[in-house]
Every structure is written in structure tokens, then in C-alpha cells.
Amino acid sequence: MRIAASCLVLALTLVPHLPALAQSGPLQQAQELLQKGDLGGAAKQVDAYLAEHPKDARGRFLRGLILSGEQRSDEAIKVFTELTYDFPELPEPYNNLGVLYAARGQYDKAREALERAIQARPDFATAHENLGDIYAQLAAQSYTQALKLESNNPTAQKKLALVKQLVSSAPPTGPALSGAPVSSTTPSASR
Description:
Elements: H1 26-35, H2 39-52, H3 57-69, H4 73-86, H5 91-103, H6 107-120, H7 125-149, H8 154-168
């Protein structure tokens, strides 16, 4: 069973824990372009901003979101990983790493990243939800393996059916950024 793309939420919002953006600044403009689906325009704004402010957490985070939206996950993973080194107290980069790893089927890495997000901020509901989705996927893999070893195991069959039902009943998450979250085509990212 493959985890539903809509199960995990990728945070495409600028997190409240990072320094505030100027209402009319380049990052605000980039966020508005991202909300409109203009990834190229948003990238130009962010890249120009980062040329002058290369260590800015918000700009780098937004750059990672844009890369995620452009399906450039290797580069997005690099951006979010570097953010976790420079700002280990921020949960959002860890959460987004978890989302990206889950999209690749790397559930152990996703679990680890999400646990780090929760460690950084225990009240981070999105990370808890994403971690639940990862556990459901890992459970499905284990039940599937149990059935490969013992195909007539009725208990494993029932449990696998329940997990599949749980994962398939998750509401789809669509791109929508409005000062709050924007979703990707994978796990639930930071909101």
C-alpha cells in the first residue's frame, strides 16, 4: 500500500516563529506569487532577496517550499536540512523534511524528522498528524509482510483493511496558501 498523497501536509506557509516579514517586502511578494501558483516569479523574488540576505531563515524556508512545489525534492531536502542545522529549534523544516521523505517512501527517515519536529515543538499538531500517517503506513507494510508469510491470517487481513481504509479516508489536501498553509502533493507540511 502506498501512502495517499493527500495524507501528509507540507507547510507552504511562512512560520510564525521566524522573524516577521515586512508587509510589502520581497518575501511577502514572493509568498503572494506562491499563493497564486507562480512558482517561477516567487523563486525570482526569493533568490533576489537571498542574494542580499543569505542566512535569512524565512527566505530559505520559502525557497524550500518553492523547490518542493517545483518537484525538486533533492534540492528542497538540502534546503530544509540546512535549516535544521542552523535553526534546530524550528519544527517546520523538520516537518517538511518528513513530508518529502514520506513522498519518497523513506518512512523511517520521515518518522525521525517528524519526531524531531515534535521535540522542537510538542504542540505542533501538523507534525503529530503526519507522524500518525507514517505510523499507519509502517503498519500497513508490516501487515502486508505478515500476509506474505501467512496468507490465510484473518487478523492481519482485517488490520490491513482497516489501515487502508484509514489512509484512504483522509481528506485531500490541495494547494492553498493565504498567509497560512499551502499544501504539496504529499504529506501534511507545517501549517
